[in-house]
Design a protein that fits this description.
Jelly Rolls, 4-stranded antiparallel β-sheet, Thiamine diphosphokinase, 2 domains, single chain, 208 residues, 35% strand, alpha/beta, Rossmann fold, 4 helices, TPK, 10-stranded mixed β-sheet, transferase
């Protein structure tokens, strides 16, 4: 089952959200994400969180789950709910932007839940990001901007092909070397790594 989660960070483009919803079976708003959903004219099946941003009206389309636990944030609550519903493929909008500490926390949550789903992706107006398996390959349009980021602080033994700036047995480390703003020079890219947690950012082709 496919699920879309909407958080209250920077919102996606309306058409971007609606397209994702057309291919999903469940739409979850994480607390303040319900306000963004309302502004875009879409109705969540579930609203979940500590509800410090969203006030219940009684006219909700779906279920409202108040979870006051302060040891987990609203995205964690939404992902835990999706896991209990046996969802397999998760797209999260609004997990980035606005407060930087919230963005960093949500990246930690991405790592925490990554192994519990077949796929778990964050999307925004500019890019899609997700954690890479040890061997990854994908076809992309030529000259697509691709960035690699060592989420665990250091990622070792990285090999890439199909990118302008190739790595062979390379290492990416926060504060030492990063892999931002690379470009695809072949339609198929391949990325291998052996140690660490490696994020990929694939930029959308958009001028908006």
């Amino acid at each position: 089952m496919n699920v879309v989660i909407l958080c209250d960070g920077n919102p996606p483009r309306p058409e971007q959200l609606k397209e994702a919803l057309e291919h999903s079976s469940l739409f979850i708003a994480a607390d303040g994400g319900a306000l963004i959903a309302s502004q875009m004219g879409v109705k969540p099946d579930v609203i979940i969180g500590d509800l410090d941003s969203y006030s219940v009206t009684g006219n909700e389309h779906g279920d409202v789950i108040h979870d006051p636990d302060q040891e987990t944030n609203d995205l964690e609550k939404a992902l835990a709910y999706a896991y209990k519903q046996e969802c397999e493929n998760v797209i999260v909008f609004g997990a980035t932007g606005k407060r930087l500490d919230h963005t960093l926390k949500n990246l930690s949550v991405l790592k925490q839940f990554d192994g519990q789903f077949k796929s778990l992706q964050f999307k925004d107006k500019y890019s899609v990001l997700f954690l890479l398996p040890k061997h990854f390959e994908m076809e992309l349009p030529l000259h697509t901007t691709v960035s690699l980021f060592p989420l665990s602080g250091k990622v070792e033994e990285i090999h890439t092909s199909g990118l302008k700036y190739a790595l062979t047995d390379g290492t990416l480390e926060n504060g030492v070397q990063d892999g931002s703003s690379n470009l695809t020079v072949e339609k198929k890219i391949e990325i291998f790594h052996k140690k660490g947690d490696l994020l990929i950012f694939i930029n959308h082709k958009t001028d908006k």
